[in-house]
Amino acid sequence: MPELxxxxxxxxxxxxxxxxxxxxxxxxxxLKKDYEIIFVDDGSTDxxxxxLDHIASKPGSRVTVVHFxxxxxxxxxxxxxxxxxxxxVIITLDADLQNDPADIPRLLEKLEEGYDIVSGWRRxxxxxFVKRTLPxxxxxxxxxxxxxxxxxDYGCTLKCYRREVVEHLTLYGxxxxxxxxxxxxxxxxxxxxxxxxxxxxxxxxxxxxxxxxKVLVDLIVVVFLLKYSTRPFRLFGSGGLISFGxxxxxxxxxxxxxxxLGARIGHRPLLLLSVLLMILxxxxxxxxxxxxxxxxxxxxxxxxxxxxxxxxxSEGTTTKVNGAS
Length: 325
Prior knowledge:
This protein is of the alpha/beta class. The protein is about 50% helix and about 15% strand. It folds into two domains: about 5-225, Alpha-Beta Complex (Spore Coat Polysaccharide Biosynthesis Protein SpsA, Chain A); about 230-300. Helix 2 (about 50-55) links the parallel strand 2 (about 35-40) and strand 3 (about 65).
């Protein structure tokens, strides 16, 4: 079993792969630890898949290639790499040569200080400021404020994870960039380390301004997962109670006017609004109850628990749980 697994999503990066492999192999050999390299070909159409297979066929390459039938996105590629990996520490980086494999030893040193995730921080980014850097800074600030996990660079793929952390996470959508926040929800210790960032020389960036809207949508999902995934009724029930309460107060006000002042209320829009708010409140509360039942069924049927244990101490003996450090 390798100590280290390197997971690299690849999508149309043919001109970068040979040099990336050589740099990565040099960095990993210098660590004097057993390792594996997992490339996940995310439906490339430029010959990257064939080149990766050629690299993997070399004796002693330590390379495994996972091929997708089509392009599923970086989150799916990372999830597939996590599942394929065997190392106790998993390292991720991009295939565009903008992440420097020479930074990996520094991240591993920080991991040994007791952290569960070490995230790279591209302090001196070499990307277009308007299209890449500025939107990234805004997104990082917003994610940090909403999740409470303050990082300068959520989007940097160069990260180190302890295996027991990623085993408790399920990725979909664009959630890969929120991994530190999701992991912190189960008690993972996260730290950030400045890393080198190189300008892109070959190929084209797969990111643009449109990615900002995807991040905003997924951020809503992350907030729900972090705060209400095991108690959805607090979200839907609170909204339902507020809606029903407002509608009831409006209806009470109209009833007083009708019964005590003899006012005509049948033609007033406020009457319709009060009825709609009360109906909406009942629907939200019902939705919250159904969500609670689904959560209960999910945990019971899959034998999963809504918490993660680290270790158990009994009679002076410490037992690690789920490979925790």
